[in-house]
Design goal:
The structure is a single chain. With 130 residues, the chain is of the alpha+beta class. β2 and β3 form a beta hairpin. It is elongated.
């Protein structure tokens, strides 16, 4: 009986440990497709626990057009929601900084320990690496 209880306890602990989502804390860098399909936006994401920031920056080619929105080069808050061992949702809440800034969820898959890939709610591709 004691062996059964110990075995059951170890099995439950192993299942609980396996269900823990990976720690996404740290600095991530990546790209996001633009709506126009021109040069992608560069992304800088910092995650600490379940919160963080996302900063968008246009590439030098896109900056050559002379158009730069008020939402670029600003730290937009984000929340890490629904993390699993293979998927995560980043809820970018740009409207908290400035009305009209990026306010969407990104559904991403953990490709490996260093890469997240997926899409924003509007379908634009997003990729982050650390």
């Amino acid at each position: 009986m004691l062996r059964f209880i110990v075995a059951l306890s170890l099995a439950l602990c192993g299942a609980t440990l396996h269900a823990q989502p990976p720690d996404l804390s740290g600095k991530w860098r990546g790209t996001l497709e633009t709506k126009s399909g021109t040069a992608p936006m560069e992304l800088y994401v910092v995650i600490k626990g379940r919160t963080g920031t996302l900063r968008m920056s246009l590439s030098a080619r896109a900056l050559g057009s002379g158009r730069l929105g008020a939402c670029y080069d600003r730290d937009l808050p984000l929340e890490v929601v629904e993390p699993t061992d293979t998927d995560v949702v980043l809820d970018v809440q740009g409207a908290k900084v400035l009305q009209g800034c990026l306010n969407q969820k990104a559904r991403l898959k953990l490709v490996d320990g260093k890469t997240l890939e997926g899409t924003l709610a509007d379908g634009r591709a997003m990729k982050l690496t650390r």
